[in-house]
From TrEMBL, chains A, B:
Keywords: ATP-binding, Kinase, Nucleotide-binding, Transferase. SUPFAM superfamilies: Protein kinase-like (PK-like) (SSF56112). This is S-methyl-5-thioribose kinase. Gene3D superfamilies: 3.90.1200.10, Phosphorylase Kinase, domain 1 (3.30.200.20). Its EC number is 2.7.1.100. NCBIfam families: MTRK. The keyword RNA-binding does not apply. One of its GO terms (biological process) is methionine biosynthetic process. It comes from Gluconacetobacter takamatsuzukensis. Belongs to the methylthioribose kinase family. GO terms for molecular function: ATP binding; S-methyl-5-thioribose kinase activity.
């Protein structure tokens, strides 16, 4: 992506440095209002990788995010700085299509690898909100629309292939974060690796069983190939419930630094996988009802919105080179059939990637917080085991669970 | 690809210019031997796009190929010069894996977009050789091995994804020639376009029928999407029988200027499609027997060689990130299953792309010469119609012809 004009210009900014940096940008200083010494700078770093600060002045706030030369939570794990450049590029690529379903990019500094986006003061991180028993009935549908638009509009379904190729090419160079996905999500949980960990000994038998299952390994291998060769669209690449911020009637996708060309079902699968884990982790029947509702809403709205955009593009002769308009313009029945088949394939991918996400978040390197609400260790292990069994079945017996509807029925049964 | 150091340095070389160009390169001059005025320069331009000359001196020969700023056979169709740069890059990428199944790259000049490769004096173009009733019993198997090696070794089955991505990225910018494929192969033959032409009125009904068939159009749309989104490996991109040169025991793939990342079945399908057309065009029972044999040999050797390389890579722990070795190293039965499934998918693609190639070569812009051996117009139309009917069936009823074996049985029956 963007290369620093001077590699030595990089330094990790502390609150005073951030204040000076923002003061030097007239548009950002105006957005904050008042004098720099009036601005409150508060660190809210929460993810594994980057420093994040919120800055407020008399007139408003901004969010400042900076890459570190290492993993934030593990200074020994060195890492190139370019991830915020990929996040800035992702925002530039999808914002025209998704509008207020993501944040506005206010500034990017390629020397400091520092990103300034709008501050979402009224919002909470969806994962934290769900863990606290909150309910955002509009959020899952909004994420469905986000994925539909961000992917359809960056695919050769909507674009001439030259434009799709030019748009996607820089993201294919997001090697550092894609390597994390390839290792931590798609590979390490399926063999002995020192980064893996789980509730042991409670889950030892379950982990050994899915690793030993050749049906699971064959399906995992297929999904590795699908992730690495099926370049349908620009993906967010890390669309879990921690990458979503919600307010009552406002839903925003953040943290696009993992953006890469890939199969659309990967974005869908990560989101569905995280809602499934919440389903197993949440202690209340209402929580479970909402989790099932959210998965259904997400999928219904993703599929509807994707189809609607596709139909509109063909009708306006603005479709891309895949399923080219001249073949389908005058045959709505055929268009409907190819759309359904395309989205059935995304559905199959979604279910498999959801299963991979569940397994890696319970037995791999980076776990999720959702299960921490279960303070009793045996109870927590039991819920994680139920989630792992579901994931195993999704991978080993895809023909038995071919649709999100079938998945919802099975998950409702298993989660109790 | 490579940019010219000075855009004004380009000029189309005539025989005298070629002589001076080669004389200025000591290694090339030494290969030719003697003095430049002893060298024979002979134009053999045959394809649609470029100038090609063979140069012979007392010690040996070379082949000189230069891009023109337009399509060679249509000076009004302007075209960027970079296609020989893609051909040079393709030779560099695959030659280490395929050895003498392609030609040696002797020199590339990025200012003149001029390529010098070894001269194949003992060889004929496979298409011309077949049309003259020749038989090269080893050629199809060699092409099968060529495709197996050129694709496996450039895929994430064999490479860490970073290496595959870095290798494939420049070829994703081969927009000019990929646009030709997207338009001429995948789109134009399925709707009214001024570039299309066919034996009219004899084939009018057949063309109207496949265009009106929604099963055909849906399958064509799917293959458009597959071509543009399934980036399994580096493809040759134009592997018809005119891109193969044969001698008694030597087979070479040439003309890699269409190289791009794509589905492996596209290279297989173009070759199979051209052999199928030869099957329908050849006037003798021996010719038909050989064409069927060659399709079978190509496919058997492609599939065997691809599988063998894959198995070896896993055994040596040199496999890539797709179907990662830790999952399959100790489970040969599962490896065998995923290999079979992967290659079944390539087989499905191969059959569909073969059908697209047949249709575009009989009803699109760029026809093939094979049918010209049938001097009687009605007989020629009848054979083309039979080939088109086969292609239609392959697209409209893929479940009926799921394998190359089934295709061979049907084609043998139809070709008589």
């Amino acid at each position: 992506m963007t290369r620093p004009t001077s590699p030595t210009a990089y330094r990790t900014l502390d609150p005073a440095g951030i204040r000076a940096f923002l003061a030097a940008q007239p548009a950002l200083a105006a957005r904050l209002g008042g004098r720099p010494d009036e601005w409150r700078v508060r660190e809210v770093s929460d993810g594994n990788l980057n420093n994040v600060f919120l800055i407020h002045g008399p007139a408003g706030g901004v969010c400042f995010k900076q890459s570190l030369p290492h993993v934030r939570v593990d200074p020994d794990w060195k890492m190139p700085l370019d991830r915020t450049a990929f996040e800035a590029a992702y925002l530039r690529a999808v914002r025209p299509h998704v509008g207020a379903l993501t944040t506005e990019l206010l500034h990017f500094d390629p020397d400091l690898f520092a990103l300034v986006i709008e501050c979402l003061d009224a919002h909470v991180v969806l994962r934290q909100g769900l863990m606290q028993g909150g309910d955002w009935p509009e959020a899952a549908a909004a994420i469905g629309r986000f994925v539909a638009r961000a992917t359809f509009r960056t695919s050769p379904l909507a674009l001439k292939f030259e434009d799709a190729s030019t748009l996607l090419a820089p993201f294919a160079r997001n090697h550092t974060l894609t390597r994390i996905t390839v290792d931590l999500v798609l590979t390490d949980p399926y063999h002995a690796h020192p980064r893996n960990h789980w509730l042991s000994p409670e889950l030892d038998t379950t982990v050994a069983a899915f690793r030993a299952d050749p049906n699971v390994r064959r399906r995992v291998g297929q999904m590795q190939a699908r992730f690495l060769t099926c370049q349908q669209a620009l993906l967010h690449g890390d669309l879990h419930t921690g990458s979503v911020m919600v307010a009552a009637h406002d839903t925003r996708v953040i943290d696009g630094e993992f953006a890469l060309p890939g199969p659309i079902g990967f974005d869908c699968g990560l989101f569905v996988g995280n809602l499934l884990m919440h389903l197993f982790a949440t202690p209340t029947p209402q929580g479970r009802t909402r989790a099932l509702r959210d998965i259904g809403q997400f999928w219904t709205h993703f599929r509807q919105d994707f189809t609607t955009q596709w139909t509109d593009a063909v009708a306006r002769d603005q479709a891309g080179d895949a399923y080219a308009a001249p073949l389908f313009r005058d045959d709505p029945a055929s268009l409907h059939q190819v759309q359904a088949r395309f989205l059935d394939e995304v559905e199959t991918d979604t279910i498999a990637f959801a299963a991979l996400e569940i397994i890696r978040r319970i037995t791999g390197y980076a776990h999720i917080a959702d299960f921490d609400v279960i303070t009793d260790r045996a109870a927590r292990a039991a819920r994680q085991q139920a989630a792992l069994h579901l994931a195993r079945d999704l991978l080993a017996e895809p023909a038995r669970i071919p649709t999100i509807a079938a998945l919802l029925a099975l998950a409702a049964d298993r989660a109790g």
